[in-house]
Amino acid sequence: MANEFTRNCVLALGLKQDKTIGGLLKHNSEVKPLLLTPIKIRGTTFHNRIFVSPMCMFACDNQDGLLTDFHMAHYGNMALRGPGLVMIEGAAVESRGRVSPEDAGIWDSEHIGPFQKVINLIHASGSKAGVQLSHSGRKGGTPAPFIMFEEKDGKLGRDGVVPKSKGGFSDEIVAPSPLPWKNDGLFPVPHELTVEEIKEIVQKFADGAKRAVEAGADTVEIHAGHGYLSHNFLSGNTNKRTDEYGGSLDNRLRFFLEIITKVREVIPEEMPLFGRVSGTDFVRGKDILSPDPDGWDIAQVIELCKQAVPLGVDLIDISGGTNLSDKKNGMFFRPWFPCSPIS
């Protein structure tokens, strides 16, 4: 069942085999679990439907956004298990868009080479490689959640932002509205983006997508969930603007839809384009289907999908929460939805 172009793939340990890792074996041909069957999205065929979600690793040694040998080991290890896709962690489209100073970046041409090495390694095991494009918004410049792990009695979390003396950039944090991530005095009030600055960031997503294509990525994903910048625009809980980027749902969708349009223009026609969104802000706890019409809820996600599909999005990855710091009882859920059935 292996695709021709992955047949005889060369593994990282130097051996050859005539089957793609994660594909169906001939002697099991009568039993074809859907999970292990190929799926074609736009012009790209994934040899199975196991997709590895992007994971922030906070492992760029010199706070420069460059992927390292650690990333080679991490993603190579994932690929050796045979998933159809390995999505590389969120890469910031500008330096102030990093969640932590140690985050990956794709805002400069010097990032292309390290991405290319990781992508080539993923391809060597027969998997497709994707790059998630991200901007942290008001949650930027924070320490990795495992910093001070022992001192906090084994609790993960972020207490404030990284000081400038240690590579922080708290004076550069941006958002659609001047609302800090937490009102505890430890997180800065973000700069409210002007319309001109919004347009510049939209273009930076497109520039990041072009670099991902140059590095050999098979797909790119636009991150618009988890309380990061695009999510801040989508949700009325964090977007209090009164111009064309705030207020009505159509206005709140505008930033993300403009990014989709720009990215679709610069990537190949046959390349799938994914989007990541949160399905709810959990304003009513674990009742994930409860309406939040002035904030962000599943009804608005459906409307977003209806508008995103005609612009060229092929798959929506839905998780949830982390836009509002005081909503602690939310849970993550992460189905992958090809967009065509809900368009």
Report what the structure shows:
This protein has six helices and eleven strands. A seven-stranded mixed beta sheet has the order 3-4-5-8-9-10-11. Strands 1-2 form a two-stranded antiparallel ribbon. It is globular. Helix content is 23%, strand content 14%. The longest helix has 20 residues, at 195-214. By secondary structure, the protein is α/β, with parallel strands linked by helices. The relative contact order is 0.11.
**How would the global form be characterised?**
globular
Instruction: Work out the radius of gyration.
Output: 20 Å
Distance between the termini: 30 Å
Q: Find the structural class using helix and strand composition.
A: alpha/beta
| Contiguous helical run count | 6
Helix % is 10-25%
Biggest sheet statistics: 7 strands, mixed
How do the strands of the widest beta sheet line up side by side?
3-4-5-8-9-10-11
Could you tell me the number of beta strands? 11
Beta-strand percentage? 5-15%
SSE order: EEEHEHEEEHEHHEHEE
* Weakly predicted, low-confidence segments: 1-12, 329-343
Which whole number gives the mean pLDDT? 88
Quick structural overview:
The protein is an alpha/beta fold and 343 residues long.
For this entry, give a set of tags.
disordered C terminus; 343 residues; alpha/beta; single chain; 6 helices; two-stranded antiparallel ribbon
Helix and strand topology:
Elements: E1 39-41, E2 44-46, E3 51-52, H1 69-79, E4 85-92, H2 112-124, E5 128-134, E6 174-175, E7 191-192, H3 195-214, E8 219-224, H4 229-234, H5 249-266, E9 273-278, H6 298-308, E10 315-319, E11 336-338
Parallel strand pairs: 3-4, 4-5, 5-8, 6-7, 8-9, 9-10
Antiparallel strand pairs: 1-2, 10-11
